[in-house]
Amino acid sequence: MTARTDLLLELRGVHTHIGAYHILHGVDLAVPRGEVTMLLGRNGAGKTTTLRTIMGLWRASQGSVHYAGRDITQLATPAIATLNIAYVPENMGIFADLTVKENLLLAARGASHAGQMDSTRLDWIFALFPAVKKFWNHPAGKLSGGQKQMVAVARAIVEPRDLLIVDEPSKGLAPAMINNMIDAFSALKAAGCTIILVEQNTQFAKRLGDEVAIMDNGRIVHAGRMAALAQDEALMQSLLGLSI
User: Vertex 200, ends 198 and 205: CA angle to 5°?
Assistant: First the structure.
């Protein structure tokens, strides 16, 4: 199988076991460079396991993961993170006792204090997520769920990233915050970042996605352009049992 040159990430026949459980059953996933790929599916379909396998948090028992033409299947998670890949898990991974500033500082390479962080980059993040600036010196654990989600994404992009992977970014967000998150991801894409998003909110997916892959029972059962799927009500119903 020859890799397409326009793909940044490709999973080929990936199987993942967690203990005695066989979760992924031959996942084939192609992520085009510079686009937003939505990973959709019912609860328990294998979406989070797919993300964790990409990041090396769970090891593929069969198949391979290729990033920028390189096989990263056997790399440890810290080594994968050095490839300019950032991952925001569903639980956000916020350090509750640290301030927003301290949370971002932890992800800023080569900065030992806030004054060494890239001020231009920070201003850009503040424009994307005004709450990050507003609560800069507040304990992150005191923020609302939506504000924590913004801090988590801001921390992931405090350094420029080639690939951003986010698990359910709109979960629990008010409509106004969802619009803000969509604007932020659109700006990241315009800046050249490739994005993979796991989502349950189909309206969010419809507005933001370029590509879509739908999972069921640990497999990709549909892949194509998001706009085409959004126009096919019957297919959406059959794949997800949902109306988009």
Answer: 70
